[in-house]
């Protein structure tokens, strides 16, 4: 629940509100409310700005998960569940979703060439829960992704089969299929 709320926006909203209350209280000569407004409002405003600057938005779903796919989450591996939860919430202090994972797999030669996770999808593949990660990858060709397929299978843990497909226009889909 908390991951679906932008802490930066929340901090900015509350900070601005308290700061405005402090300014109005100052103009009205209310020293206590003025002090509280400034004492809490300005730091919250600055914290909200800092969080907003370091904010990484959640990755959208390419398609709304079907009720069958949602029910299939019960058979998801802990790795699939962790990835889905991590990329669908606000993150702070990271440059991109799964940036350290891509670096570990050798798919991120530099920050400028790093593939960007642009969408996810959930479905059942032959009755098995499948989490699909869609990357915008203009600098890393499909052949490089395919050469890392075996490494991905061991990286994402036991009971996972990885398939890689070309989605066109520089996009690559990585399907993590529960075995």
What does the model show?
The radius of gyration is 22 Å and the shape is elongated. With 179 residues, it is an alpha+beta fold. It folds into two domains: 52 residues, no CATH class; 123 residues, Threonyl-tRNA Synthetase, Chain A, domain 2. 45% of the residues lie in helices and 22% in strands.
* Strands ordered across the widest β-sheet: 3-4-6-5
The proportion of strand residues reads 15-25%
Q: Which bin fits the share of residues in helices?
A: 40-55%
Distance between the termini: 29 Å
CATH topology name of the largest domain: Threonyl-tRNA Synthetase, Chain A, domain 2
Low-confidence stretches: none
How many helix segments? 7
Provide tags for this entry.
single chain; about 180 residues; alpha+beta; Threonyl-tRNA Synthetase, Chain A, domain 2; two-stranded antiparallel ribbon; transmembrane
What topology emerges from the helices and strands here?
Elements: H1 7-28, H2 31-53, E1 55-56, H3 67-72, H4 78-87, E2 91-92, H5 99-104, E3 116-125, E4 128-136, H6 142-147, H7 149-155, E5 160-168, E6 171-178
Antiparallel strand pairs: 1-2, 3-4, 4-6, 5-6
Helix pairs in contact: 1-2
Task: Summarize the entry for a quick read.
By secondary structure, the protein is of the alpha+beta class. It has seven helices and six strands, in the order H-H-E-H-H-E-H-E-E-H-H-E-E. It folds into two domains: 2-53, no CATH class; 56-178, Threonyl-tRNA Synthetase, Chain A, domain 2 (2-Layer Sandwich).
């Amino acid at each position: 629940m908390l991951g679906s709320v932008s802490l930066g926006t929340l901090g900015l909203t509350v900070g601005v509100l308290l700061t405005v209350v402090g300014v109005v209280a100052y103009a009205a000569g209310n020293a206590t409310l003025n002090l509280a407004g400034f004492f809490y409002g300005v730091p919250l405003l600055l914290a909200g700005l800092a969080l907003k600057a370091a904010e990484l938005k959640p990755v959208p779903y390419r398609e709304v998960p079907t009720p069958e796919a949602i029910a299939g989450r019960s058979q998801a591996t802990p790795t699939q569940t962790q990835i889905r939860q991590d990329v669908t919430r606000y993150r702070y202090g990271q440059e991109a979703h799964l940036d350290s994972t891509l670096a570990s797999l050798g798919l991120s030669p530099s920050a400028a060439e790093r593939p960007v996770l642009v969408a996810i999808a959930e479905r059942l593949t032959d009755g098995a829960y499948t989490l699909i990660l869609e990357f915008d990858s203009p600098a890393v060709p499909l052949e490089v992704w395919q050469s890392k397929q075996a490494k991905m299978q061991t990286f994402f843990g036991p009971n996972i089969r990885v398939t890689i497909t070309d989605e066109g226009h520089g996009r690559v889909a990585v399907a993590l299929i529960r075995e």
